Amino acid sequence: MTVTNGYEQSDREQAIKIINLDELEDQARQIIPQGGFGYISEGSEDEWTKARNRAAFNTVQIAPRVLHSVEAPSTSTSVFGVSIKTPVIMAPTAAQGLAHTRGEAATAEGVAAAGTIMSQSTYGTTSIAETAEASKGAPWFFQLYMSNDWEFNEALLDEAKSHGAAAVVLTVDSMQGGYREPDIRNEFQFPLPMANLAAFSETSGKGKGIFEIYAAAKQKITGADVRRVAEYVGLPVIVKGIQDPCDAALALGSGASGIWVSNHGGRQLNGGPGSFDVLPSIARAVNGRVPVIFDSGVRRGSQVFKALASGADLVAIGRPAIYALALGGAQGVRTVFEYLTHEFRIVMQLAGTQTVDDVKRAKLLHY
Ligand code: PYR
């Protein structure tokens, strides 16, 4: 452990054994301080939507097919012209220094070693440059929380572009923070500065709660902002936090190059549907025009399969990777992506599919 500003950070760098992703949560709880763990693991209100994210996958079944060759399964795929080894990518999650001294840099290193895509959060503990460097040439996305201060947005977009971001993820579901009881109970304030805020705004975020951080972000984000970001940065802009087909259409009409279906891991609006509940209708609205990325609640290979068969092109995970970061640093993160991809590959074969495209064409049943 390393103590920084009175906060105990894991500095582990070791292989971890994973039986399933759920078990990582309890293991991580033992080593991440209570306030940090509460922030990472929490959902909003009574966490109904967070739970629904998981339950929604059980509303469909995979139609098992046999008499199809599954000798050479391949989980590789591509997005925006970038090839990756697995359709499972890293979701943007904030303040990873809460889990490990190396924060996002270790996550980026582990994700790159697994051959997939890192997403850096605006609210990262480590800087865009340091995290990009740790990706060692592997593809990564930059997630933007827009500020009212357009110069701040420009500074981050310039920084992300100059360090090689493959796309910008514009989050549009966080005009306000969800009512998150663990943070209130723990009186949680970020113990560590957030590198991008420290470099480009008046406050580093240290000593503030997530409500205060969100209060400084732009509350009114419309299609015009999507267009402005896309025109300014000249990279694909993926709009994250879409939960309705009409909003997907709005985003596409405003120049979005990707749609990210997510309810923020159940951390924002409680009482809304599970993210998987709304994926099929949004994918139908997008109709293959741009990539669809999906997150919220994915813990199993069969769930990756169901998401792809429901119209997602990529599936993102957040919390399990952060738990693994605490437990094993970059090696832990790498293991999570390799483990979930391994479970997915087993499901692919048992379902009679051999490629990610086969999975996308696979039939789901509703018994
Ligand atoms: C969250 O706390 O959910 C953020 O995305 C910052």
From TrEMBL:
Cofactor: FMN
Residue stretches making up the FMN hydroxy acid dehydrogenase domain: 13-367
Glycoprotein among keywords: no
PROSITE patterns on file: FMN_HYDROXY_ACID_DH_1, FMN_HYDROXY_ACID_DH_2
Cited InterPro entries: Aldolase_TIM, Alpha-hydoxy_acid_DH_FMN, FMN-dep_DH, FMN_HAD, FMN_hydac_DH_AS
Coiled coil: none
GO molecular function: FMN binding; oxidoreductase activity
Positions annotated as active site in the UniProt record: H264
Positions contributing to FMN binding: 92-94, 121, 143, 171, 240, 262, 295-299, 318-319
Keywords tagged on the record: Flavoprotein, FMN, Oxidoreductase
Binding residues annotated for glyoxylate, in chain numbering: Y39, Y145, R180, H264, R267
Lipid biosynthesis in keyword set: no
Family (UniProt): Belongs to the FMN-dependent alpha-hydroxy acid dehydrogenase family.
Name this polypeptide is given: L-lactate oxidase
Lineage: Bacteria, Bacillati, Actinomycetota, Actinomycetes, Propionibacteriales
